[in-house]
Amino acid sequence: MTETVSGQARRGRSGRKGLKMERIFTRPGIHPYDEVRWERRDVVMTNWRDGSVNFEQRGVEFPESWSVNATNIVTSKYFRGAVGSPQREWSLKQLVDRVVGAYTTTGREHGYFASDEDAEIFDHELKHALVNQVFSFNSPVWFNVGTASPQQVSACFILAVDDTMESILDWYKEEGVIFKGGSGSGVNLSRIRSSKELLSSGGTASGPVSFMRGADASAGTIKSGGATRRAAKMVVLDVDHPDIEEFIETKSREEDKIRALRDAGYDMDLGGKDIVSVQYQNANNSVRVSDEFMRAVESRSSFGLRARLTGEVLEKVEAKGLFTKIAKAAWECADPGIQYDDTINDWHTTPETGRITASNPCSEYMSLDNSSCNLASLNLLKFLNDDNTFDVARFVKLTELVITAMDISITFADFPTEKIGETTRAYRQLGIGYANLGALLMATGHAYDSEGGRGLAGTITSLMTGVAYRRSAEMAAVVGPYDGYARNAEGHKRVMRKHAAANDEIRTLDAIDKAIHVEATRQWQECLKLGEKNGYRNGQASLLAPTGTIGLMMDCDTTGIEPDLALVKFKKLVGGGSMQIVNGTVPRALKKLGYQPEQAEAIVEYIAEHGHVIDAPGLKPEHYDVFDCAMGERAISPMGHVRMMAAAQPFLSGAISKTVNVPESATIEDIEEVYLQGWKLGLKALAIYRDNCKVGQPLSVSKKNTEEKPQPAAAPAEVGPVRTRLPKQRPATVTRFSVGGAEGYMTASTYPDNGLGEVFLKLGKQGSTLAGVMDAFSMAISISLQYGVPLETWVDKFTNMRFEPAGMTDDPDIRMANSMMDYIFRRLALDHLPYETRAELGIFSAEERAAQASGQDPATLRAEDDVERETLAQSVPVERPKAAEKPAPAPIAEAHSSTELIESHQGRTADAPLCLTCGTKMRPAGSCYVCEGCGSTSGCS
């Protein structure tokens, strides 16, 4: 174990002794790169929607063990230098050398190491851990360290706003600078006077919600890092602010507008071109509730809303009613979340400096105003031995190494504002965390929602934070405690004792968590002893971040504290292409549970086909819960997620980035119960997402692919496809249309029984290339309809296709179109498909949208017509054996990400946005979303 050195060790600038480093993975005389098998690869990233190349760099060098996805993301996001220039990085070695070199050089210069040999060990161990995906720094480190850019290493920032116009304008400016650098920020607006209070001039104050409007517009304009993703920000308001009700309902009111505009035909999806007309969409909102308020909720008593300057009660409200409004708004649009103020500040290590009032956008970093935090996450699965024991010794040593490196980075880091720089250097907040917890639990045979799973998660988190603070106390002896420590010594030591006491309360259930807990207890004892003697180098040490992009970089199956998303995932292959695979943790879990190889193979095959374990051959029902996931047939219950958060929270300096998903059927009372239990279980923050509550992530239910397929009756011989041509005289409809100013004509001809059988399109001048292409396209569509391809198949394929010309149309039913094809097939669907089929495809007429908005069932508008349509062919009838004439299940769309693969098994669309960079459907990562295709995130990285 690392320890401070003897008196013979070299002394740093302060005259104190340096740190003695010990080897973890490396061997003396052998460079860590020499123990890795390297290979050259070509990185070509395309947009699957149109085949265009987003990024290309050939001949890059990576370890053989790295996946194609991790290679693509690191090459495209983290390599520096203009693509195609000699200065462009082309090897992972160059990237790691650039970053680690800055850490090692700074550590030498500032007396962190006892000797040059210790500096070399630090250098080699850090490089080994990074190239072998044992841990990763947060994205700003990879972007900036070792480059000519400012050395910004923090991903999370907290700002402060006072009740002056100068402070409010500074807030706008500071947020813009942070967003430009690719990071996110949070702020509490509770110091701003409410709209019910007077200004010194005699007028009425605008209130914080009005100023949120300006900040939201600014955030929507300044896209993070110059990219296309939205800015990431958090806005917090205290529950006793007089404008709290307006704040609570801010986003739910806007969601009503979004629905109305969507129903009028506007593009209101996340990233849609019309969403910018709606306000307050660039921030997460949270209400900061107190214990006083929560007790008033329980007792159903009144609660006072207080003036900002005088503290006098301006208004009394029923606490339960206000709490219900919070839950109702969250039920409607997922905002606001809740932050538990008294719990947060009860675990605050620097209370004499100031209260914790806000958090970063993902709610895991909670500290002083005008501060920042740099993050790093450990890959837990790397510490699971082949015999399913946890490598406690290496975990301890790697945690020491990473915390040392993170503290060094504050020494050389640059910050977006001087105020943030001063606070961060004075308090040196760090955020070590982990990823792959869900995979670790499954691999060791623990259900995520179980006492055993929570016990293992709690002991690992306790050990990590105990080692981090013990190392912080050792660094304090070498390079001094943080500047604000003397002022906050008693408060800091009190919180350390609270962590240690919580560790003593852990109940271990099996050998793996017992061994971890024994070491965690020893680490906390040493931490308290060294802290009493030396103080601490860091005001904060740990939290659990979403680990979106860096989770992909480390090839993690699960992010942060999350469980497995599903049992199958989408894997890209070398040389192009992709395949569906069952998560590697599944066979490992089956082996741990005692299944023989033949049994495990049969179960894995079943999972590959069905996407779940229900009725898998030979799998015992009592083992089903080990394979429960965040999505799918056996989704973990909302309280299962809350209980897991509660197991880890007492051992974290900060909080946990996680959204608790609840089913669409959940009630407002269910949301209230989740928020109430979060307070009782000691969480610091909690956010929920109810499936299908937001227009930006639409949910549509389709036919399940697990439905029993109709079996054709036995026939003497198979009948192939038969083409049925239209009669020479056929009814037809001619539609003149305009999309984005470009005009065209569509002729749609039907069979006498009204089934569509022919489509001809006229665009461009006769003899032009465009006209010729459209003629050929029309003939292909027409022949396919006559051979029995259902019209809904073409509609599903071509709606939402995006290309120019696009924009406003002259059709009252389809006000906006993403392209000519999008408009044409929407029009055909409206004219020739029944309501039920169109509803599954999300295509409605203006009359039907109006009925939906008024609460009427649109299916009743044309009940007689729809009944008649069901007796008619939607395309040409095909001569087949009678039993085969039943409609076949809708074809499953090709998957391009794990989320889309899960959708194909579930038979319904997941509530996840499309990546604005490459078009791939994203997957949840904490309270954000991450794209498996290119590594982009919807929040801070």
UniProtKB/TrEMBL annotation:
Domain TSCPD: 728-830
Superkingdom assignment: Bacteria
Segments forming domain Ribonucleotide reductase large subunit C-terminal: 154-689
GO MF annotations, alphabetized: cobalamin binding; cobalt ion binding; nucleotide binding; ribonucleoside-diphosphate reductase activity, thioredoxin disulfide as acceptor
Known cofactor(s): adenosylcob(III)alamin
Region (Disordered): 872-898
EC number: 1.17.4.1
Enzyme's top EC category: oxidoreductase
All residue ranges annotated as the Ribonucleotide reductase class II vitamin B12-dependent N-terminal domain in the record: 43-133
Annotated catalysed reactions: a 2'-deoxyribonucleoside 5'-diphosphate + [thioredoxin]-disulfide + H2O = a ribonucleoside 5'-diphosphate + [thioredoxin]-dithiol
Task performed by this protein: Catalyzes the reduction of ribonucleotides to deoxyribonucleotides. May function to provide a pool of deoxyribonucleotide precursors for DNA repair during oxygen limitation and/or for immediate growth after restoration of oxygen.
Stored NCBIfam families: NrdJ_Z, PRK06556.1
Family: Belongs to the ribonucleoside diphosphate reductase class-2 family.
Protein name: Vitamin B12-dependent ribonucleotide reductase
The organism of origin for this protein: Actinoallomurus bryophytorum
